[in-house]
Design a protein that fits this description.
single chain, alpha+beta, four-stranded antiparallel sheet, 43% strand
């Protein structure tokens, strides 16, 4: 632009006076500069929000070079799909002047294709309704009370399902199927000749509008009661199933056992307070008799055992105020397993509650129950290689849950 103006100035100096050609050249230089100039960063922007003020759409129309020295229309046509709000404004993010005018927000509702008015008997009031006659739109035939208008042989009937209704004379075309229940009224009359109060939704029998509301309410109440009963039944079945499974996993066990244990260990105890200790068992022999009764399954069995094992068992246990706990690690040919448990005094002599957890390579076993009985060591020693002899008798109610 500067070069063009310099050349034009030199031409004017040489000619000594202005001329029309020089003025046209000046206008062309200015217009060319406007064409090559970048449009400022200005735009029309909008945002749509739903009824809860959540924004779900944003858009904008940007100013272009077409606005150079003339008007450019920035507009956006939107189809609104839900109720809510719109926010719109114009923005100029540059120091350059941009003039906005004729800013408008117009709302256009959906076009009306049909509008109909009726008297209480369903006769259409002509002259005040509207019907779009375009070939691309089919006329709606479901009119008064949402019933289909049948136009055959110049007649106009509404199909109510059970009967055809003629709104011109306010009568049905055939006898009421339930006429014997309404002998006071004509079997051809519509809504007991009182369509302002009564309705006949299916052509079977008229009814009060309040009766319809009552029937709808009763239907809703009935369905609600059915849903509640079904939910309670399912919940009860789930509880019964869980209780049944718990009972099936519960058993009564009476066990007497004599153990010969080769162990080394140490313990400390304060009478009336508690104590604890640790030990290592290298071998154990036992004679036992066990009677088991499954509460849910009814299974009854007696087992007698004479076992000898050389498992290495590390055990740590403690007790305070009648409550105790233990943890042991067992190593044998099958691998290593762990067991831990707690015992709690029940307040009844010789009765304790027990919960234990056993983990190994194959599964995890959780058992809890109540035991009654006693365990009496006959000989106790902390010297390595000395056999410990104890007698154990217990009656247990055990619930056992195995998780593979």
């Amino acid at each position: 632009m500067v070069d063009g103006l310099s050349e034009l100035a030199g031409s004017l100096q040489r000619s000594g006076t202005g001329n029309p050609i020089a003025l046209l050249n000046l206008a062309d230089i200015l217009a060319g500069d406007l064409r090559n100039k970048e449009a400022p960063e200005a735009y029309l922007i909008y945002a749509l929000y739903d009824n809860d003020s959540n924004r779900y759409e944003v858009g904008k129309q940007v100013l272009t070079k077409n606005a150079a020295n003339q008007h450019e229309v920035l507009e956006e046509n939107l189809y609104i799909t839900e109720n809510g709000y719109i926010e719109t404004f114009v923005v100029n993010e540059t120091p350059e002047d941009v003039w906005f005018d004729d800013f408008m927000l117009m709302s256009t509702t959906s076009p009306i294709m049909q509008e109909a008015h009726y008297d209480p008997w369903g006769l259409e009031l002509e002259g005040i309704g509207f019907q779009y006659t375009g070939s691309e739109i089919k006329a709606n035939k479901y009119l008064f009370n949402g019933k289909e208008l049948i136009e055959d042989n110049g007649l106009r009937y509404y199909d109510y399902g059970a009967r055809m209704y003629d709104p011109v004379i306010g009568r049905w075309g055939v006898v009421d199927p339930l006429a014997e229940k309404m002998r006071r009224h004509s079997p051809y009359s519509y809504a007991f000749d009182n369509p302002i109060r009564f309705i006949d939704p299916d052509g079977m029998a008229p009814g009060d509008f309040s009766d319809l509301i009552t029937r709808v309410a009763n239907y809703a109440i009935t369905k609600t009661k059915q849903a509640v009963r079904e939910t309670v039944r399912k919940a009860a079945n789930i509880v019964k199933q869980n209780v049944r499974e718990a009972i099936d996993d519960t058993r009564i066990e009476l066990k007497g056992e004599i153990k010969f244990t080769d162990e080394i260990g140490a313990k400390a105890e304060i009478k009336g307070v508690g104590g604890g200790g640790a030990s290592l068992t290298t071998s154990e022999s036992s004679l036992s008799s066990t009677t088991t009764l499954g509460i849910g399954t009814g299974e009854f069995k007696n087992e007698y055992g004479n076992t000898v094992n050389h498992d290495r068992v590390w055990e740590v246990k403690g007790q305070a105020a009648g409550n105790g706990g233990y943890f042991k690690t067992i190593r044998n040919d099958q691998g290593v397993s762990s067991e831990g448990g707690i015992t709690t005094e029940s307040g009844i002599p010789l009765v304790q509650t027990e919960t234990s957890v056993t983990t190994g390579d194959a599964d995890t076993k959780i058992s809890t129950g109540v035991s009654a009985g006693f365990k009496t060591p006959i000989m106790v020693s902390t010297t390595p290689g000395v056999v410990h002899l104890s007698f154990d008798i217990s009656l247990k109610l055990i619930y056992e849950n195995k998780k593979e």
